[in-house]
């Protein structure tokens, strides 16, 4: 089946829940996802992969153990594999995520915020 | 060395040449690049990998053999591996590209538009 054009805002308009990434495209064995974030996530790391955050709207803080990374619209950050991080959004943030398919959002932490990735 | 925040517009402000992707980040063995496009590229394909285009500014047409794909700001398209394509931008386009490190921009076509990817 041929790929379709993905309009990120149109995809974001389809859901409202937070911390639940939705897959909008696949690039080889990587997932391209959009997510809405508000509040504080859980501290976790991904031992086997880097993770890319690109902010589309809002102000995102990615807390690391030794500093905070601040991202606004049009800014991206790659969390290196194995690095503990905890995203925080005081107001709602819309972001694009890119990471290998099958990565669990809560990494090594697990818990109630663990989400199943759906296509949207 | 810890990763840095990447501001896409600030990176785009650093160069003016067209069809010469600049790497702004790495995600595992993938490159995240920004590029300025104007005019028509060459028809080519990448036999081993998909290629993601996310338009930041302007209107991009990705010509395929059977149709044209039109992308505006905030829209992305993944060209499947092996699919011949030829990007065209009647006015300047700024875009983000994601693909495995080492992919040659002109794919199987080669020629004078073949660019070496620099970090920026």
Low-confidence stretches of chain A: none
Listing every helix as H and every strand as E from the N terminus to the C terminus, the arrangement of chain A reads EHEEEEEEEE
Helical percentage of chain A: under 10%
Q: What's the domain count of chain A?
A: 1
Q: Give the distance, in angstroms, between the N- and C-terminal Cα atoms of chain A.
A: 16 Å
Mean pLDDT, all residues of chain A: 94
- Class computed from helices, strands and strand pairing of chain A: mainly beta
How many helices of chain A in DSSP terms? 1
Taking the sheet with the most strands of chain A, its summary is:
8 strands, mixed
Top CATH class of chain A: Mainly Beta
Cα-atom Rg of chain A, whole angstroms? 13 Å
How would you sum up the global shape of chain A? Answer: globular
Q: Just name the CATH architecture of chain A.
A: Sandwich
CATH topology of chain A: Jelly Rolls
Strand content of chain A: over 45%
Give a verbal description of the structure:
2 copies of one chain form a homodimer. Helices cover 4% and strands 48% of the residues of chain A. Chain A has 120 residues and is mainly beta. Chain A has a single domain, classed as Jelly Rolls. In chain A, strands 2, 3, 4, 5, 6, 7, 8 and 9 form an 8-stranded mixed β-sheet that branches. Chain A is globular. The first copy, chain A, starts with 5 loop residues before the first strand and ends with a strand. Chain A binds chain B through residues 2-9, 24-28, 30, 32, 49-52, 56, 69-71, 74-81, 98-100, and chain B through 2-9, 24-28, 30, 32, 49-52, 56, 69-71, 74-81, 98-100.
């Amino acid at each position: 089946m041929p790929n379709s054009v993905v309009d990120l805002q149109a995809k974001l308009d389809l859901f409202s829940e937070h911390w639940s990434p939705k897959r909008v495209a696949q690039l080889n064995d990587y997932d391209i996802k959009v997510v809405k974030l508000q509040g504080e996530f859980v501290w976790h790391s991904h031992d086997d992969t880097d993770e890319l955050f690109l902010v589309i709207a809002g102000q995102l803080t990615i807390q690391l153990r030794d500093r905070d990374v601040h991202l606004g619209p049009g800014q991206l950050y790659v969390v290196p594999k194995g690095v503990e991080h905890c995203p925080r959004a005081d107001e709602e943030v819309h972001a694009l995520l890119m990471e290998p398919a099958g990565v669990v959002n809560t990494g090594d932490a697990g818990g109630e915020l663990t989400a199943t990735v759906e296509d949207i």
